[in-house]
Amino acid sequence: LRAAQGGALGLESVQEIVVGVKDYEKANRNWEKLLSPVQPVAPGLWEIADGPAVRLVHDEKDAIQALVFKVSDLERARTFLREKDMLDSTRSEQTRIDPAKIYGLDIRLV
C-alpha cells in the first residue's frame, strides 16, 4: 500500500476493529486475558502499540461489527467513493462505505 500511496482510497492503516459481543462482561474478561499485559484505555477498548485498537460493543451476535481504516486524505477517499457510487454516510471526521455495495460490511474511513 505504501508503494501505491494507499491505492485509490489512500489507505494507511487499520485504526480500529469493532467487535460485537452478546455477553459483554464475559467477552471483556476474555479479551483482557488475551491482550494482557496491555490494559484497556477505556471499558472495552484496547490500543495495541502500532496495531489497530480493539473495541467491544454490545450486539445480538458475536461478530466483527466494523473496520475503521485511517486514510491519508479523507476528502480524496470521499471523492473516489462518490465517483464509484459507494459513498454512504459522511461526517466531518469519518466517512462510511455503503454496506450495500460491499456485501454488508461496515467499513469506515477516518
Share of helix among residues? 10-25%
Name the average pLDDT.
Answer: 94
Described by its quaternary structure, the protein is single chain
Return residue spans where pLDDT drops below 50 for at least 5 consecutive residues.
Answer: none
* SSE series: EHEEEHEEE
The structure class reads alpha/beta
Task: Supply Rg.
Answer: 15 Å
Distance between the termini: 17 Å
Determine the strand fraction and express it as a percent band. 35-45%
**How many separate helices?**
2
* Largest pleated sheet: 7 strands, mixed
Number of DSSP-assigned strands: 7
Could you characterize what this model shows?
The chain has 2 helices and 7 strands; from the N terminus they run βαβββαβββ. With 110 residues, it is of the alpha/beta class. Strands 2-3-1-4-7-6-5 form a 7-stranded mixed β-sheet, covered by helices on one side.
Please give the structural blueprint.
Blueprint: E1 11-21, H1 24-35, E2 45-46, E3 53-58, E4 63-71, H2 74-83, E5 87-91, E6 94-97, E7 107-109
Parallel strand pairs: 1-3, 4-7
Antiparallel strand pairs: 1-4, 2-3, 5-6, 6-7
Quickly describe the structure.
It is built from two helices and seven strands, in the order E-H-E-E-E-H-E-E-E. The chain is α/β, with parallel strands linked by helices and 110 residues long.
What features would you highlight for this structure?
single chain; alpha/beta; 110 residues; 36% strand; seven-stranded mixed β-sheet
